[in-house]
Design goal:
This protein has eleven helices and six strands. Helix 4 (119-132) packs across helix 6 (158-176) and helix 4 runs antiparallel to helix 9 (200-227). The strands form two sheets. A four-stranded antiparallel β-sheet has the order 1-6-3-4, with no helix packed on it. A two-stranded antiparallel sheet has the order 2-5. The chain has two domains: 25-109, no CATH class; 119-249, no CATH class. It has helices spanning 2-5, 57-63, 77-80, 119-132, 143-146, 158-176, 178-186, 190-195, 200-227, 230-235, 242-248; strands spanning 26-30, 38-41, 47-52, 85-89, 94-97, 102-107. By secondary structure, the chain is of the alpha+beta class. Belongs to the JMJD6 family. Residues 1-140 form the JmjC domain. This is Jumonji domain-containing protein 4. It catalyses: L-lysyl-[protein] + 2-oxoglutarate + O2 = 4-hydroxy-L-lysyl-[protein] + succinate + CO2. Pfam families: JmjC.
């Protein structure tokens, strides 16, 4: 997500978070939103993490009368049959939180927490990822240079201007490569199929392509679900421009 902020000229910001909290505060069992992944670095204090690989949460639900438990400390985990990792994070240590892994965190000593999200900005970020990961074009646009021309009268701010540039480029890609788009929507795990049976040398050679394809298909699914969500439609959270209309009917 921080890659997106590098092309933002209207604001100096990023998608990092600072966590603060007193002893025994905790985050219930969950998987991070938008299939995101992250690094968590401890400045001070200690945190206890429970990590469950994808699919293991189903065993927790089955053991908990079909409901996802909020606090795994209330469960006899060994009896659930679920595989998990339990770690204690000390000051100066970094923990990687993989996409799709359910996890729970408890502050062993004093910490703090602060977080937030703007859905309009996040939607522009999704479109930026879609554009820069386009599988059939080696696109890595220097969008900051694209923003040099004079601002249009319809652009109230720099972010609106950035969205206009991204939308124009992305709409061009969509209209000229619809077959690729529909194919990936029908088989979003095609990148995984390509990996299976590949030798080590091929994996190393193709890894950048697979990562781009993974990012592209993941974001494509999120965007299509987001645009068709009844709450988004009710609140009119997304403007009805040509690009968004095109994405909605995919």
């Amino acid at each position: 997500m921080n890659e997106f902020w590098s092309v933002r000229r209207d604001i100096q910001d990023d998608f990092r978070f600072v966590y603060l909290g007193v002893r025994n505060t905790w985050t219930p069992l969950h998987a991070d939103v938008y299939q995101s992944y992250s690094w968590s670095v401890n400045i001070c204090g200690e945190k206890r993490w429970w990590f469950f690989p994808p699919g293991e949460e189903k065993k927790l639900c089955a053991f908990n009368n079909g409901r996802m438990p909020m606090d795994v400390r209330n469960l006899p985990l060994e009896s659930t049959g679920a595989a998990y990792f339990l770690i204690v994070q000390h000051p100066g240590q970094a923990v990687f939180v993989p996409s799709g892994w359910y996890h729970q965190v408890v502050n062993v000593v004093c910490l703090r927490a602060l977080a937030g999200i703007n859905f309009w900005e996040f939607f522009i970020l999704l479109k930026y990822i879609l554009l820069t990961r386009w599988p059939n074009r080696n696109i890595c646009l220097p969008l900051s240079s694209t923003l040099q021309p004079a601002q249009c009268d319809d652009d109230p701010d720099e972010l609106s201007r950035l969205e206009r540039v991204i939308d124009a480029e992305l709409l061009d890609c969509l209209q000229n490569d619809t077959d690729t788009l529909r194919s990936l929507l029908q088989n979003p795990c095609s990148w995984r199929d390509e990996i299976q049976g590949s030798g080590v040398e091929l994996v190393e050679h193709k890894l950048p392509h697979w990562i781009r394809l993974h990012d592209f298909t993941s974001v494509l699914q999120i965007i299509t679900l987001f645009l068709k969500h009844p709450v988004v439609e009710l609140l009119k959270s997304i403007s009805e421009n040509p690009l968004n209309k095109y994405l909605t009917v995919l």
